[in-house]
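Aim 2, interim progress. The first record below pairs a target sequence with its structure tokens.
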Amino acid sequence: MATPRFLLPPEGKIAPRLTALLVPGFLALLAAGGGAAWVTRQNQVHTRAVVHTYEVEKAVLEVRRVIEEAEATRRGALLAPATAAYRQGYHRAAAELPQRLVTLARLTADNPRQRDNLAGLQLQLGALAQRRAETMALIERGDQRAALAAFRADTEANSMRAVRFLMNRMAREERRLLAIRDQELRVTERAFYAVLVLAAVLLAALAVVALLTVLAYTRDLARSRDATQSLADSLEEMVAERTEDLTRANEEIQRFAYIVSHDLRSPLVNVMGFTAELEAATGQLGALVDSVEAEAPQLLSEEARLSAREDLPEAIGFIRASTQKMDRLINAILQLSRQGRRQLAPERIDVGQLIGQIRDTLAHRLADADATLEVTGMLPEVISDRFSLDQVFSNLIENAVKYLRPGVPGRITVSGRREPQRVIYAVVDNGRGIDPRDHARVFDLFRRSGAQDKPGEGIGLATVRALVFRLGGTISVDSNLGQGATFTLSLPLTLESQRPEGQGKNE
């Protein structure tokens, strides 16, 4: 009799399909990461340019302050020659002016217009400084009359107007540059947002595609195993052939899950790294906005303020939350994959003793939840894999403790019976129960039932079902909302010690 194959996934096709599906997405995600890095560098360049503009404006203001201070103190000395503070103030300003001019020259060395303006300014200041020095020399010799005569004959008013004109022109040049650089900064901000949105969309798309693919093949495998179980009693030859097919399909699924968990992590780490860099750049941008708002608020638009303080941190927070969730899902897939690749080691197990060990381990949680764990009757022994069976019962009991009804003392019981070639175990609780419409989906990977008010990724019952299948058994649930749940396990009395051909290679 030919073996029906419509329930089995195409052999050898899982990894190539996954590669063909995800490689373009990974490349696009890497490109988005590169774009994010480039935008970050451009943002830093434009930020430094804006900071440089403010430094030049500050230097121009300092030069202007020193010039005005020197003139004011000179006039004060003319009016009150006996006051030493005026003379000291003049000499201090005159000594400070060359240093300020050197700083201004250094900051404007890259701008030909400003160099020309500075050359004219220095020419005016040279003649002005000489006339001021002559006036102050007469005052210090006590010849106030000659000093006043020299001041009246001075053409300093024209020189000061020329100085102020040149300095105003330098300030206008910097404001012109600031407007250009502010526009460039806005352009990079818009590009930055575009890259963030693109990276988030790509990451979400990759996660959805990968998870849907895993779930689809997991469901195919589950249906194949159910079909094999229904034919086992009457068609031993078909069972043997179907078991071999299922083993190969299971190995392929495990390799596929490993590929997903391994290959998704690399671009995910890149996105996390770029997000950290963007977050650091956001801090610098926020500090710049604070500085601009404090020193020159008229230069800062409301749009730029909101972008730096609200929109940008919110977008980065969204990407960080998405990457963290993706990391947890990848770890869940990897855990399930490792369970499927582990070699089983059958041994005789006293299930009653095993439940007692689990009860001792969970004693603190049971006490906190006001719950009890009891064994009803004698639990039949079984020859199976101890680690897998411990995982199955631990997950079911922990699940029962987690979903107890508030205010109702919890009661969890484990019972069992022996049939000719199988053993049946039942884990019963009086918790909040499961809607009958969700009985099948609660065993699916990442699927949960009822109110999502408890922590978890939806992998516990999926792991239980995968382990039970590997032990050659089945699991089902009978429950209604508010009436507790009963999980029933059917296991072979003796698990064959078999290792599928090729298992363990390249792991």
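The second target in this work package is listed in the same format:
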Amino acid sequence: MQVTVEVVGGDTHEFDAEGATYADLLAELDYSPHEVAVLVDGTPVPEDQAVDADHVQVVRLIRGGS
């Protein structure tokens, strides 16, 4: 199963996601689940869930402030 992973505000990547979880996709992109959210059709999905979509968005979470 091919999946397109769009990093919002960044690049788009294609992966073979056969048997993969969303956390596996993040690892391929060198992102931690603590720094991004994974969205399918605009809805967050758990990182430990098996990939079941052909298009995924990764949104970097903003941290900062005092």
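The beta strands are 2-7, 12-16, 36-40, 43-44, 55-60. This observation will shape the mutagenesis plan for the next reporting period.
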